[in-house]
Amino acid sequence: MLRLLARVLRGLPGYLWSGWGACASLFLLLAAWEAVAAFYDPLILPDPLTAFAALWGLVEQGSAWPALAATARRALMGLTLAVAVGSLLGLAAGLSVTASVLSRPLVTVLLGTPPIAWLVLAMLWFGMSDGTPVFTVFIACFPVVFASALQGTRTLDLQLRDMARAYRLPMGMALREVYGPHVLSYLFPAWVTALGSAWKVTVMAELLASTDGVGAALAASRSQLDTATTLGWITAVVGCLLVVEYGFLEPLKREVERWREAPR
């Protein structure tokens, strides 16, 4: 683990330098926001500086961090359960043709059911507790992770598997050098997708079934017709998501998928 962390840190400068393209796209989005806001009343669409000022006011008041922490806690709890259970069950189902065939209709049903339907059921089962957003996040993210783990296991190159058996590779080495990289190439995109869904679903659940968190704050700003504060909260959530994805998941993904790089 320490060696992996050291390699990630060594590659961090190059990764940050390559992030200029992502920063440029964000600035382009802000420029488009500024241009569109010039044609509307601030009550309809405030400009970015007004939204950032509203967010900074929430930070100075001390209400931003507790709300973001509550939302992050619920999102990460549901996401962790979905990643752990979905990955393990997907890998197990991928090892059996019968299990993979039987599980596909169930995954389709779970993917086709709107998260708002699960949210209503969760409100009936868990009430206004943390169980409502956590369960909704879990059930919304689980099929995405499960399907990716299943697909990664089923598409494993049989020639690589036979080669590992022919050379009698130790199980640890085979998992690390043969099976792991292939399966992780399917799991990482699913984890990133689940991360984005987790934040969105958590905020939606808090909007309807919580008294704290970003969702509850959005409900309060909506009732007050405070569009600037609403956009400030949205900006905070998107900023947290970008920090987690590009500050942690993306460098880890680049390190794990080093085998994709062509040899120099």
Automatic annotation (TrEMBL):
One of its GO terms (cellular component) is plasma membrane. It is found in: Cell membrane. The keyword Thylakoid does not apply. GO terms for biological process: transmembrane transport. The chain crosses the membrane at residues 12-33, 75-95, 107-128, 134-157, 178-199, 231-249. Keywords: Cell membrane, Membrane, Transmembrane, Transmembrane helix, Transport. Residues 68-250 form the ABC transmembrane type-1 domain. It is a multi-pass membrane protein. Belongs to the binding-protein-dependent transport system permease family. This is ABC transporter permease. It comes from Simplicispira suum.
